[in-house]
Amino acid sequence: MNKSMETVDLLVVGGGVNGAGIAADAARRGLSVLLCEQDDLASATSSSSSKMIHGGIRYLEHYDFGLVAKSLREREVLLKAAPHIIWPMRFRLPHLPSLRPAWMIRIGLFLYDHLARRATLPGSKGLRFGPDSPLKPEIKKGFEYSDCWVDDARLVVLNAMAAREHGATILTRTRCVRAVRQGDLWQAVLHDQAHDTKTEIQARAMVNAAGPWVQSFIEDSLHQTPPKHIRLVKGSHIVVPRLFEGTQCYILQNDDGRVIFAIPYEGMFTLIGTTDQEIFCCPEDAAIDDTERSYLIGVVNRYFKKQVAVSDIVWSYSGVRPLLDDESDNPSAVTREYYLAFEHDDGAPALLSVFGGKITTYRELSRTAVDMLEALFPDLPESSTATALLPGGGFETQAILRAEIEERCPWLPSDVAQRYVRSYGTLVWRFLGDKSALSDMGRDFGAGLYEAEVAYLRSEEWAVTAEDILWRRTKRGLFMSDAEKAGLAQWLASQAAM
């Protein structure tokens, strides 16, 4: 970055969903924005969720009616904004008489249906499970309601792309190691960890969206006392071979009052999670442990005919949720609401720190955060993200887009075409539009991951390593052998050396 580009309106620290969302909203409103992320985009909490855009039905038990209503409203907005990576899903809740009574569930689902207007999603209903059900035969009754699935890591990348389309600079593998106030500007030092170089920039305002590191960033890089504190709660998930047919998700109650989701995942698998375990270590060291594996398997085996063992686990991941410390004794009861701490004294550059939050409300959080900067930028226009499409979202339905791909590219395998629809939407034409045969796609690294797609991810979506591509951008890591993964890593290394 040269000297003439050193001053920006807004420096965003953190490339998770909140940081990328704030960068996108601010850039849309005309602010000059620079976002720095110490690793890959969505490399921590934002790629380790349960992959749902949902109101959070269990939050009703903790009387978080406002949070649930806000989340349900956002569910409709996001479904329209990103129909390629977000789509409706029906959730089935088997009823066990020994747990929550049926009348309580009916009241909760009634509230869930009516706390916010539903434009597209059907309401809840009762169910009876027959002999063809994947559930154990003693489970006869249940309920069904609507929420949405999301590819969480791609949601972050698309927001970063939206920010870039409106002039923002996105720097991955770049850590903000120090920032001090000097007059009316922040003076920040950014460390490019890939090249081991440091750059100084100036910013009129700074957003601390460091997620699990929001508190430590204030203490270690800004040398200030944080206005709020967070609790680090680890949520772990396991992936096993498919437990049931169909596209519905199952929400499973447990004796401890928690619920576990069993969600169709990448066609051939079931995603099971999540746990809630408070941790006191560094967020980057969080990993699933034997207790969590046993907990998740125990809940699933209580419900399904097909039993799961530890040996069935093909992948697992753990994310650390930075929850606002509300002094709750139970990690599961800690609020998922967010808090925006805004410091802006006359003549001093502003600091806005994001504490807590959940992926479903990221857009509303981002809008509110940028609205607060109006104190510094008085001519700031209103947010447009309530109606804006995320990159790739400009199509009518997934079926229509898939038909268009198959018509224009009849040589493309149908499963690859379907994955492209649900990963890229209309962005697919950026690497597919000039191809006329499968041979034009270049090397197949395995599981239908072609060189043309990888090249696009490197040039347009900030992918650097095999992990970026296999586990965040595409999830192809579930289907590829160790040799195929190594081949991709070697190819990427050769390209980086060129």
TrEMBL record:
Keywords, comma-separated and alphabetical: FAD, Flavoprotein, Oxidoreductase
Coiled-coil residue windows: none
GO BP terms: glycerol-3-phosphate catabolic process
Oxidoreductase listed as a keyword: yes
One CC-aspect GO term: glycerol-3-phosphate dehydrogenase (FAD) complex
Catalytic activity: a quinone + sn-glycerol 3-phosphate = dihydroxyacetone phosphate + a quinol
Name the record gives this protein: Glycerol-3-phosphate dehydrogenase
Species per Swiss-Prot/TrEMBL record: Iodidimonas gelatinilytica
Gene: glpD
